[in-house]
Fold this protein.
Amino acid sequence: MDSHKNIIKAVKSNWILNGGCGLNEVVQTNITNEDIFVKPKLDDILCADRAILLGRPNSSRSETACELQLLVSPPYKVEAFTVLCSVPKIELFIGEQKEYAETVYGTIMEEDEDEADIAGSLVSYRYDVEIEKSGVVEVTLKFITPADEVCVFGIILFAAPNPNGITTQTPNCINLENVQKILNSSKQTISPGAEKCKLFMQLYSQNSNMQDQLVESSNKKTGNDALLATLLDNIVRKNIEEMESRMNTRLNLIEQRLSKLDEVLSILNQNK
C-alpha cells in the first residue's frame, strides 16, 4: 500500500494544520481493480506518522465547518475511501463544484491499548465509503462537529485506473434533488424569498431539459425535417418565454401578498 504516491494530486483544508504530518502525507493510497470494496484492517489505517490535527481558524468567531479536499491525478479515479477520525458525522461532496453526495455517520471504534497510544482519550469513528459515480477525481469531506479541533488518525484512498481520462463533470447549475435532501435532513424551513428562487430554478431546469431534447432531435434531421424542427424550436422557445413570464408574475404576486400579510401581523402585534 502507498507505493503509488503519484495518485494523490493535492490535499487541501480550509482549517489550520495545528499538528501532525503535512496534509499531502496524511493519505495512504491503494490501487484496486476489484468490483467489491474490501475494507482495510484497522492496523492498516492507524499510523502515528500520518495523523493530523486541524484547528478552526479564529475559533471564537468562525462557524465554517472543517473540510478536507482530496484530488487524484487524471490517470486515476476515486473508487472508495476509509477514514478514521474524531468526528461522528461527515458530509460527502464530489467534483470541482462540490456536488452534495451523501451524509455518512461513522462507526464508533472501541479503544484498545494500541489505539490509546495514538488516539489518546479521543473517541474515534470509522468511515468506509464507496463512490457511486464513475470518473470522480475530487472528493471533499465536510466534518460536522461543534468542536474547534478535528483529529484525523488515518485515511486510505482506493483508486482505479482511468486511462481514457473520463471524469464525471458536475454541471454548472444547482442540483435541486440534493438541495431538497439537505433541507429534509436539516428539518429547517426556508424563507418565502428562497422558496421563490427554488420554484424558479425548477421551472428553469425543466425548460432547459426541453430545449436540450429539441436540439438533439433537430441535429439528427436533414432537409425538410430540419426546417420543421427549426420552426418547432422557435414555437417552443416562445412558449417557454411566456411560461417564465407568467411564473414570474405569479411569484411576484405571492411575494406582495406575503408582504401585506406581514404588515397586517405587525399592526396586530402593536395593538396588543
Q: What stands out?
A: The chain has two domains: 5-161, 189-270.
